[in-house]
Amino acid sequence: MIGTTKKPLEEVLAALAPHRKVALVGCDGCAKICQTGGVDEVAQLAQTLEAHGKEIVFQATPERTCNVAKSDPVLQPLKEKIEEADALLVLGCGGAVQITRHLTETYGLTKPVKVGLNSVGHLDTVVPGAVATEECSDCGDCVLNDTGGICPVTRCAKSLLNGPCGGAEAGKCEVDHSRDCAWILIYERLKALGESDRLKRFMEPKDYSRMAKPRTLYIKEGRVA
Ligand code: SF4
Ligand code: SF4
User: Fold this and answer.
1) Is 127 part of a structural domain of the chain?
2) Are 51 and 110 members of one domain?
3) Ligand with an atom nearest the CA of residue 138
């Protein structure tokens, strides 16, 4: 999922300062899981904004606001309401904000679309409702088959493909002693799997051009460009 945190209220109010009538759009996907933009958070913010003199034109929370197939059926019927609003405020990731902007443009509307959250990366839920961690950096060329299912690109502070670097102490990373060394974890995991021979192989440098942004996935062709 895309992790999000709430922007401070002062920042949201500053973004909305020129606008009185506000349409609120949440996201019942990732933002709901992060407790930043689900139905409840949208309703709470609506009350807060009303207390600060805003008129809430509508509240809508598509199942996945970043996905046109989910957000368009919710937002299109609200076109007249969107027209009535001075601005939209989206409680979703940066992608959700931009898909909302894109949809308003396809409806022929030019409205400010503001963001109420900060996106903090591709995260995976480890403790539901409590902790989500970064496990994958979307490098486009996955090496997990060779590393026991532990990502060195993301979990090693130096993103080493052939580790450890020699600085690890008592299993901890030299860059951050509070973190386990990713390559010690990989070694332990491969040993437990009876696959420690994999560590004798040199892993070729990655083709980091596959991480060049912005990437477009052509879904039917399975191709990224
Ligand atoms: S190697 Fe790591 S960053 Fe790359 S796709 Fe696999 S998990 Fe993600
Ligand atoms: S100590 Fe381990 S995790 Fe830290 S930089 Fe070196 S190899 Fe990577």
Assistant:
1) no
2) yes
3) 1
What CATH number corresponds to the domain at position 27?
A: 3.40.50.2300
Please name which of 153, 165, 162 lies closest in space to residue 210, comparing C-alpha atoms: 153
Identify the H or E element spanning 88: strand 87-90
Contacts of 175 (CB under 8 A, 6+ apart): 157, 158, 167
Question: Residues near 14 by Cβ (< 8 Å), separated by ≥ 6?
Answer: none
Q: Which ligand is nearest to the CA of 157?
A: 2
| 128 inside domain | no
Ligand 2 center–CA 181 separation, angstroms: 5
Domain boundary among 64, 97, 122: 122
- Has this prediction a pTM greater than 0.90? yes
What range defines the domain where residue 63 resides? 2-122
Per-residue pLDDT tens over the stretch 76-125? 999 999 999 999 999 999 999 999 999 999 999 999 999 999 999 999 99
- Do 39 and 113 sit in the same domain of this protein? yes
Instruction: Kindly state if the Cβ of 38 falls inside 6 Å of ligand 2.
Output: no
Res 160: pLDDT: 97
Ligand 2, atom 4, lies closest to the CA of 173
The pLDDT of residue 97 is 98
Question: Is 159 found in the same domain as 106?
Answer: no
Per-residue pLDDT of 54-82, as tens digits, reads: 999 999 999 999 999 999 999 999 999 99
The residue among 219, 147, 152 whose CA lies nearest residue 187 is 147
Tell me if 224 is assigned to some domain: no
What distance in angstroms lies between residue 202's CA and the mean position of ligand 2's atoms?
A: 17
Q: How far is the CA of 139 from the centre of ligand 1 (A)?
A: 5
